TrEMBL record:
Protein name: Tetratricopeptide repeat protein
InterPro entries to which the protein is assigned, alphabetical: CellSynth/LPSAsmb/PSIAsmb, TPR-like_helical_dom_sf, TPR_rpt
Source organism per UniProt: Limosilactobacillus coleohominis
SUPFAM superfamilies with a match to the protein in the record: TPR-like
PROSITE patterns to which the protein is assigned, alphabetical: TPR (PS50005)
Length: 420
């Protein structure tokens, strides 16, 4: 048995002191090929310093061996010494058998520096040299997956599967494909691959994406089962709760939906979107006190979120809390935020409180957006009636009747004003 083999056995047995001694003897006594294999093994085990010592010893003896240079570059990258890595890689000519590997290592280096254009350039060059090489297909696919170019990643993963690879570098290819298809909005294809993922690769992310994909496809029973299993498996996976709550709500199981949202808030108490979702679910149960509580909490967590503010505003209007609605929306006006729905909601509150000047300004701002909205026009007509603006009233009545020719009440009202 070589000293290299002894060292690996001792490492496996946890005999660290004995392994150190065997390593020292291996450097002195073992054959070069044996040492090279030991370096690869040590690198894979995370013993970077020891692997580096071997490679440096071999490079001193074989200065033209480019494979050693790429290995040293990989170790330098892992240690955060990118300049050192580049120095090694620059010594590998394009004519070298190790050039392909050097391109992959260089791509890894530039990716760590978030120089994604250069990363892609190196990987594309590698692909042009060896378009069927599994390591190249995987590296380029992973790059496109990382930068969210899923449509470009998909054919590369498919090419790996066609070569018989279901797993590469401890990554489940079916899982990657399923995730990429899902992110591209191709949910039917996504689910086909996600359901093929081997149990050992069923991470929380894979389980979540499977449930979310089932939800997108309207497979509510399957989605509920998958997301419940995920929470049983990992109850701190916060994103599972709003997804499961949504599945329950779409299945008209509102009590279960609310309970799930509340459990999610126990895990993620600063999630304003989940508070807003819980409020929406509570509306289906007629629990207005709970709606108020959750919408207030959501707004306080993110007071600049217009979507949540308008959801809260709609609730306050429904509850006839007109001054509260004005207090809620006024800060947006002071910040010169112009949103037609915001203005319409303000107009309704001002009308109810008989603040007609303010109501008129709000209606005027919202009018270009809602000029063909019958509900808005009905309220605007009420405003013109209340303020005695005859000409504007007739104009809007005529427009309304064009939009809703079956509304006999409004037709009669128009006739009365036209004959006035």
């Amino acid at each position: 048995m070589s000293y290299s083999e002894k060292m690996l056995d001792q490492l496996e047995a946890g005999q660290m002191e004995a392994a150190k001694k065997s390593f020292a003897w291996a450097l002195r006594k073992d054959e070069d090929d044996t040492l090279f294999n030991l370096a690869e093994q040590l690198y894979g085990l995370g013993f970077l310093h020891q692997a580096q010592r071997i490679y440096l010893k071999l490079l001193d003896k074989y200065p033209d061996e480019d494979e050693i240079k790429t290995s040293l570059a990989e170790i330098a990258i892992d240690g955060g010494h990118n300049d050192e890595a580049l120095a090694y890689l620059s010594q590998v000519p394009s004519s070298s058998p190790a050039y392909l590997q050097s391109l992959l290592v260089a791509a890894d280096l530039y990716q760590t520096e978030e120089q994604f254009e250069v990363t892609e350039e190196k990987l594309r060059e590698a692909y042009e040299i060896a378009p069927t090489e599994p390591a190249v297909l995987f590296a380029l696919g992973e790059f496109y997956y990382l930068v969210a170019k899923y449509d470009q990643a998909i054919p590369l993963y498919i090419a790996l599967i066609k070569q018989g690879y279901t797993e590469f570098a401890k990554v489940d290819i079916a899982g990657r494909l399923g995730m990429a298809y899902a992110q591209s909005g191709k949910f039917t294809q996504a689910l086909g691959y996600l359901e093929q993922v081997d149990p050992q690769y069923q991470t929380s992310d894979i389980r979540f994406q499977t449930g979310l994909t089932q939800l997108h496809l309207g497979k509510l029973t399957d989605a509920i089962e998958t997301l419940k299993d995920l929470i049983d498996y990992d109850d701190q996976y916060a994103s599972a709760y709003p997804a499961l709550a949504s599945a329950y709500a779409q299945n008209n199981q509102f009590k279960q939906a609310l309970t799930t949202a509340q459990e999610g808030l126990g895990v993620d108490q600063y999630n304003e979107q989940l508070f807003a979702q819980a409020a929406d679910i509570a509306s289906h149960l007629g629990d207005y006190k709970l709606m108020d509580k959750y919408l207030k909490a959501a707004h306080e967590l993110d007071p600049e979120n217009m979507t949540i503010a308008l959801q809260y505003s709609n609730f306050l209007l429904q509850q006839q809390r007109y001054q509260d609605n004005i207090d809620l929306l006024s800060p947006f006006i002071k910040e010169h935020e112009v949103d037609p729905q915001l203005e319409w909601n303000l107009a309704q509150s001002y009308m109810k409180l008989e603040q007609f000047d303010k109501a008129g300004k709000a209606f005027e701002t919202a009018l270009p957006t809602y000029q063909d909205n019958p509900e808005f026009l009905r309220q605007l007509i009420d405003y013109y009636q209340e303020t005695g603006q005859h000409d504007q009233l007739v104009d809007e009545l005529e427009h309304y009747v064009e939009l809703v020719p079956t509304d006999t009440e409004m037709i009669d009202l128009l006739d009365s004003y036209q004959n006035y």
